[in-house]
Amino acid sequence: MDQQFLFPLDGDNNPTYQILPRVFNEFFYNGERYVFLIGNNRQRYICLLMVDGNEIKLYGDEWGRFIEDNVPPHVTTLHFVKEAETTFYVTGYTDFGVEGPGYERRDVGNRLSRCLVRCTHGGQILPGDFLQNIWKSVFKIYANGLRFRVNHERVQLNMESVVRSNRLFGNGWERLVTDLEIADGQLMVFTNLGDNKLNLALFFNNGRCMHEEVVLPTMLRIPPRAIAPYAIQDKRAKHICCWKGHNSHNNENDVFYVELDGTVTEFYHLTVPTDYCEDHLMHTYGKALLVHNHQMVTFNVKVIRDRSRPGRINHVKLTGNWRKFGERCGFNHPKMMRFKLINTIGQIVEGEEIQVAVFHVC
Ligand SMILES: [Zn+2]
């Protein structure tokens, strides 16, 4: 599955529009009208896409705002990281490979800093003070599921300046270059994972990332930005995942959205959308196990039948103490909840086997 791509920022036509690279058309585009872009400010921008012949462009007010708020003038390369369906975290680099300002630790929250370099054989210089004042002589580098121990030293490239850079070298570095078949000049993005660990992502010349990584959703800032008018009916636009490190966003299969509001908590039930019930045979379940981070609560699945038309199922409701559940999960009202069916388990209740639907709720 493709997750990441790099491309040059079009300095002439931005913030009006940006033509996306071919890699986007081939591996990421699903015919959607807009994409969710997340900036370093941890806000979401719902940016319109325009298909213009063979080209796909980002354009419109939201894209303009995104650039204005998140991309400083000296950024020349943009890096899109897919963290959920049609959702990308976007960062950028200067010509020297330094991640754009605004990405300092205190601004990024749980995001970590990155740099972009081209591979040089016989040791690798990382730009600026990417690793800040770390004098550790060995770093662990993770790439494509492999781990390498690489020597590290601080180097003073310019004798006139006190600024020091970082150099990776030694047998470990040579083995990494050989094992991963990295070509001279190949694009590489290092992410500082902290604790003397680096992650390495390799890119083809067309900007496509070569390997898969574990990508978790950004914890979006609350309150969110106003939703663009064209996305106002889109429940995804109202949802904010508040489960740190949640890993079930890579697709929207088996997902429904319902708002937790006063009606749900007052009447102790939540109605599952009808088409979802039909597709997922919700009436065949006796219970639902709702999981949010370390919280696990069992709700009853109640089938409401239409008395005037026997055999017809009108609604399926999840009944239980929604107020308590919301409080335990830290949901603030009104909260657009996302339910993803992740498993079905059998359970014996009073000698009878019932099916339990296990949902991730965030
Ligand atoms: Zn989530």
Radius of gyration: 24 Å
Portion in helices: 10-25%
Please name the CATH architecture of the largest domain.
Beta Barrel
Instruction: Determine the CATH superfamily of the largest domain.
Output: DNA-binding pseudobarrel domain
Spans with pLDDT under 50 lasting ≥5 residues? none
Order of helices and strands: EEHEEEHEEHEEEEEHEEHEHEHEEEHEE
The overall pLDDT, averaged over residues, is 91
Number of helices: 8
Proportion of residues in extended strands: 35-45%
Strand arrangement, largest sheet?
1-6-7-3-4-5-2
Topology:
Elements: E1 4-8, E2 17-19, H1 22-27, E3 34-38, E4 44-52, E5 55-59, H2 61-70, E6 77-84, E7 87-93, H3 105-108, E8 114-118, E9 124-126, E10 138-143, E11 146-155, E12 165-169, H4 171-179, E13 187-194, E14 197-203, H5 235-238, E15 255-260, H6 262-267, E16 269-272, H7 274-279, E17 287-292, E18 295-305, E19 313-319, H8 322-329, E20 335-349, E21 352-361
The structure holds zinc ion.
Verbal overview:
- By secondary structure, the chain is mainly beta.
- The protein folds into two domains: 4-203, Beta Barrel (At1g16640 B3 domain); 253-361, Beta Barrel (At1g16640 B3 domain), CATH 2.40.330.10.
- It is 15% helix and 40% strand.
- The strands form three sheets. It has a seven-stranded mixed sheet. The chain has a seven-stranded mixed sheet with strand order 8-13-14-10-11-12-9. Strands 15-20-21-17-18-19-16 form a seven-stranded mixed sheet.
- A hairpin with a 2-residue loop joins strand 4 (44-52) and strand 5 (55-59).
